[in-house]
């Protein structure tokens, strides 16, 4: 009787260990997918930032006229990027 109880206990323990291992593996896959999703979102945001900056450079270059005073290019780029981001946000809202 004692050996039957011990083998049942070992069987239950083995099933618990197997279930825990399976759940752990499944969770690792989900975590990896979530990390991949986060990386894709970050990549997309970086891509949009680069696109806006490139467009801002082009726009500022087209509009820039030499004058007697110093030009604050940082402010010009920041303002242009803000306009582009606002325009992009409006576009995304209309298609959603």
How do the helices and strands line up, and which of them pair or pack?
Layout: H1 2-63, H2 73-95
In short, what is this structure?
By secondary structure, the chain is an all-alpha fold. 89% of the residues lie in helices and 0% in strands.
Describe the structure.
This protein is mostly helical and 96 residues long. The protein contains two helices and no strands. The protein has helices spanning 2-63, 73-95. The longest helix has 62 residues, at 2-63. It starts with a helix and ends with a helix. The model has no long low-confidence stretch (mean pLDDT 87).
Number of strands: 0
Largest sheet: none
Order of SSEs? HH
What's the tally of helices? 2
Average residue-wise pLDDT: 87
Estimated helix fraction: over 70%
Strand content: under 5%
> What is the approximate shape?
rod-shaped
């Amino acid at each position: 009787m004692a050996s039957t109880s011990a083998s049942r206990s070992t069987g239950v323990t083995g099933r618990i260990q197997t279930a825990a291992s399976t759940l752990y593996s499944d969770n690792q896959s989900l975590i990896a997918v979530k990390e991949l999703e986060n990386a894709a979102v970050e990549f997309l945001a970086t891509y949009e930032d680069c696109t806006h900056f490139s467009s801002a450079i082009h726009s500022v270059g087209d509009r820039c006229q030499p004058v007697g005073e110093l030009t604050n290019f940082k402010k010009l780029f920041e303002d242009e990027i803000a306009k582009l981001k606002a325009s992009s946000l409006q576009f995304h809202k209309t298609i959603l």
